[in-house]
Amino acid sequence: MERIAIVGAGTAGLHLGLKLLSHGVPVTIYTEQEPSRLRGSRLLNTVAHHAPTRMRERVLGVDHWSGPNADMHYIGIHVNGGPHPFSLRGRVDSPSIFVDYRQYQPRLAEDFVARGGRLEVLPVDLDVLERLSGQHALVVVATGKNGLTRLFPRVPELSPHTQPPRMLFAALLKGLRMQEPIGMNANLIPGQGEIFESQVVTEGGRVPSVLIEALPGSELSRLSTQRYDEDPRAFEALLMDMLRRFAPTTYERVDPANFGVRGPLDYLQGSFTPVVRRGWAQLASGRFALAVGDTHVTNDPVAGQGANAGSASAFALAENIVTALAEQRPFDEAFCREAEASSWAATAPATHWTNALLQPPPPHVIELLAAGSKDVRVADAIATAFVTPELILSACACPESTAAFIARYRPAAREAAPPVSPLAWHPPPEETPVHVSLTR
User: Fold this and answer.
1) Gap between the Cα atoms of 358 and 82, Å rounded
2) Of 85, 92, 134, 262, whose Cβ has the fewest other Cβ atoms within 10 Å?
């Protein structure tokens, strides 16, 4: 059987490679550096893997981190600011997990090699990609490095953003007492953005983390633009003050004398523009290349769905490849179009949910959250739906679907939730284009 080439050893590339190997398909992964070098690198992200992705990890036999000291069962959602701040805390049906990718990706690369996959350290640009296409039955691009994303044009009708909708800061922390049982807090701050607190499994055990999603130009965005390394103490004082003002449920567990970023490599700052690209390209040789994961669809991390969408698209693409090989079909344009459609179907709910969170919520969504603050059954349902895009999109599609969702979990008549004005939420910046609607 002819070998498949995957360029990039991120989560989507590794999940695709492992899935193909499980079907007996020979695979070579090409990567810029030895994956083991990631263990000493800068923090890559603070990524959540939710129940569907964890199920895929169990299928692949790479669920190495599960257990009572890792599984996240609770989500708190706090609307801080406006005339009627409120909070809810719900239990998810199936736990999520946060694993430091400096551990996750090298371990999966080791699994890949141990199971017979080939891994070659080779920087791949467009010229090298052309050469690889002549040596393999199919080339899949799972990285945007070295200009490879230029192969896959932006799809305007699916890409509402033309500039970064959020300024980002992520870090592993010290001096913050972690919640027990393990949970995540999402702080939604009118006029500022979002602050997410979670707990990440690292080489040294579970540690607290924070992800700041700041509206451009807001006070919160200073955490993305002020350089940490110029004055770490001043930066940590700023971060602590932002938690005090905008994330009080997190700040109440801060030890001011010991609070800060864990180490000089344990933080990230930056921004990027989310985009959906065409999922395939014809090369100069006449052969085709496919895109998977972030190379195909790049989502903002506000919904915690990036890696989950990448894993889902990898599994969808693996099914297309295995079927085509079994039927002895060529990897031609028709195959590429079918594969793109399958990958997009697997990724679209996460993209729509992410784009929805990047715009002000309509009144019925505020009513849903307020109902969760009054009834634990509704809160549990919201928490489970929050990490499952298909569920939350259905619940928030329109006022009628939201009312039905609330009634399903709170059948008895209850005291109405306090009125919350949607106008108190942050308006989108003037330069930000219209985002995908919750009703899409």
Assistant:
1) 18
2) 134
Residue 428 has pLDDT above 60, yes or no: no
Average pLDDT, stretch 32-46? 96
pLDDT tens digit string along 144-159?
A: 999 999 999 999 999 9
Q: What element of type H or E holds 136? A: none
Q: Rounding to the nearest 10 degrees, give the CA dihedral for residues 214, 218, 222, 225.
A: 80
CATH number of 1-44+101-162+274-360: 3.50.50.60
Class of domain 65-99+166-272: alpha beta
Q: Assign 119 to helix, strand or coil.
A: strand
Which residues are CB-contacts of 133 (< 8 A; sequence separation ≥ 6)?
5, 139, 283, 285, 287, 288, 289
| Residues in a beta bridge with 6 | 29, 140
| Domain residue ranges in the chain | 1-44+101-162+274-360, 65-99+166-272, 361-409
Q: CA 242, 244, 248: angle at the middle one, nearest 5? A: 120
The sign of the CA dihedral 144, 149, 151, 153 is positive
> How confident is the model at residue 412, as a pLDDT?
62
Q: Which residues pair with 86 in a beta bridge?
A: 79
